[in-house]
Structure formats: structure tokens, C-alpha cells
Amino acid sequence: MSPLPKRALLAITSYHGPFYPNGDNTGLYYTEALHPYTVLTAAGFQVDLASETGEYGIDPHSVTKTALTDADALVYNDKQNDFNQKLAQIKKASDLDPTAYGLFFASAGHGTLFDYPKAKGLIAIAESVWARGGVVSAVCHAP
Fold it and tell me: pTM surpassing 0.85?
């Protein structure tokens, strides 16, 4: 078996709609993508961010003062940060080559409950990574 690429796909939910009792939208839980991105890039992985539709929205509850550490808030407020730049240019899963990845990480937030189960593009990438002996992982609501 040939070695897998040291490239990871970090999946982001496309759903950004009502969820909370007060009518607030849900979506990507910011740090549940930021933290794995930080760990993977520190480990030498090239990391791409993608959602099923090529769009995303951040759960406003995930970027409050109580939800972010001081270090997380610095990153969140720095629009030039590499992670934020990648979010701003998020890719559409079906536009990607599944064989380009050796690791698939499904980040979370409540939005994943709405779109991940039927996200054919993201599922195809995860299946390809798994079939080639790669790592498929998730956090929180993503499984």
C-alpha cells in the first residue's frame, strides 16, 4: 500500500439555520474546527476546509466571551489568521479529489446534525480516506 498524503480535510457544517429556543441560528462551533486545525498544522499536515455546499455560518454561541479562551478570541478577531482565511475561502466537498487526503476530520456544532447525514460529498471523501487505510475522526455532534 502506498503512503497516504499528509493532507487533511477538515469538514465544516453547511447548515446555518434556526436551532435554539430563542430562534438563534446554529452552525459551525468555531473552536471545534480551530483546535483540530491548529493541532494538525502543528503536526505538519496541509489542511483544507470544506463543507457540503461550499458555505458555512458560525454558531453565535460559539464565539461569545464565555465560549472562547483569550487565545481563541485573538485568533477569531484576527481575520488575517490562516485559519480564518481558509474559512473565508471554504471549498465545496464535491469539487475536491478524495484521494488527495490521508485524514478526514469532521468538526462539529449542532448544524452537523442537519447536513452531515446526507452530505454525499463529505461522505465520499471520508469513505475514500477510510478505504485507503487513513484516519477518519470526528468531534462532538459530528459523528
Answer: yes
